[in-house]
Design brief:
By secondary structure, the chain is of the alpha/beta class. Helix content is about 50%, strand content about 10%. It binds glyceraldehyde-3-phosphate, 1,3-dihydroxyacetonephosphate and zinc ion (ZN). Zinc ion binds next to loops.
Length: about 350
């Protein structure tokens, strides 16, 4: 099966009232781990690449790995998504490469750090929607900004999404999915204590979903930062201070209120790093990369399997016949003419 439109995955998730994990990848082992688990759990899945991932893999390695994934796992609906596109050019180059979905993150200026104004966000996002939908590609936009800068992305200032403004944003841009800022941030250091409603504004999800029941909501910064994964890293020489991520239960509440895409990167990074540290510490004479990359892949698989089950996408891979991007394009153009 070719790479599938993310819009279709999310539409189906809405029909089935479940969420779909969007997992960041940078290399073959991560892609293999995601796909193996998708097969084992019969899950539709979103694989996403940041600008950093695209530059690390030089794009072509990444796209060919994803084509291999689609060829080797033909029964799995899998979308390839550009995470945090910083400009229309970034999104258009992803579409040219063969991505089936793009995020135009106009909540920040092109530097990926400075918060933008609303009119800028509407303008660049609308531009990407026009170009992407013309080829059947899905578009995610973002309103509000996440916290956290330690991964080099984000302003460090939190601006929570305003539900009223969200309605105007969706109407004026025509996006398929809306990333909301509810107090999460990227990376391993999100909260200094278990998050409550003061710092994690789940009520906003409900309010936005009530106003925009047909828009698929996206939660960024959704790693749970499991303490046992951090403990393994620290046991074998790491130095990570304690911190709290987003509890899976909160994500599940979000899914009940319109969250359809859940972004997870950090948890897999933690799993991979811990597994590699363990092998290198326990077997200091080992130098065959396969000796630590295999356990790293297995550790990531455990994370992905847990999340795909918890988000509810497990068991849904065979629910529907994937549409082609041409079919998606025709659907978009028909809805413009209505
Ligand atoms: O946007 C955040 C993701 O975790 C990607 O991170 O830019 O380090 O690849 P990255
Ligand atoms: P985490 O850092 O919480 O995994 O978030 C990833 C993300 O939002 C990618 O866009
Ligand atoms: Zn993100």
């Amino acid at each position: 099966m070719p790479l599938v439109s993310m819009r279709q995955l999310l539409d189906e998730a809405a029909l089935g009232s479940y969420g779909v994990g969007a997992f960041n990848v940078n290399n073959m082992e991560q892609i293999q781990a995601v796909m193996e688990v998708a097969r084992e759990t019969e899950s539709p899945v979103i694989v996403q690449a940041s600008r950093g991932a695209r530059s690390y893999t030089n794009d072509r390695f990444l796209i060919h790995l994803m084509w291999a994934a689609a060829e080797l796992y033909p029964e799995i609906p899998v979308a390839l998504h550009q995470d945090h596109g910083n400009s229309p050019e970034t999104c258009l180059s992803a579409i040219e490469q063969g991505f089936t979905s793009v995020m135009m993150d106009g909540s920040l200026l092109e530097d990926g750090k400075t918060p933008s104004d609303f009119e800028y966000n509407v303008r660049v996002t609308r531009e990407v929607v026009e170009r992407a939908h013309a080829t059947g590609v899905t578009v995610e936009g973002e309103l509000g900004t996440l916290g956290g800068i330690e991964d080099g992305h984000g302003s460090g200032e939190v601006h929570l999404t305003d539900p009223e403004q969200a309605v105007e944003f969706v109407e004026r841009t025509g996006i398929d999915a809306l990333a909301v800022a509810i107090g999460t941030s990227h990376g391993a250091y999100k909260f200094s204590k278990p998050p409550d409603g003061e710092v994690l504004a789940m009520n906003l999800i409900r309010e936005i979903h009530e106003r925009l029941p047909r828009t698929h909501l996206v939660m960024h910064g959704s790693s749970s930062v499991p303490p046992e994964l951090v403990a393994t890293i620290n046991e074998f020489g790491g130095e990570m201070p304690p911190s709290w991520g987003v509890p899976v239960q909160e994500i599940q509440t979000g899914i009940e209120h319109g969250v359809r895409k859940i972004n997870v990167d950090t948890d897999a990074r933690l799993a991979m790093t811990g597994a590699i540290r363990r092998v290198l510490a326990e077997e200091p004479s080992e130098f065959d990369p396969r000796s630590y990359l295999k356990p790293a892949r297995a550790a990531m698989k455990a994370v992905y399997a847990e999340r795909m089950t918890q988000f509810g996408q497990a068991g849904h891979a065979n629910d529907y016949e994937p549409k082609t991007l041409d079919q998606m394009r025709d659907t978009y153009s028909a809805s413009i003419q209505d």
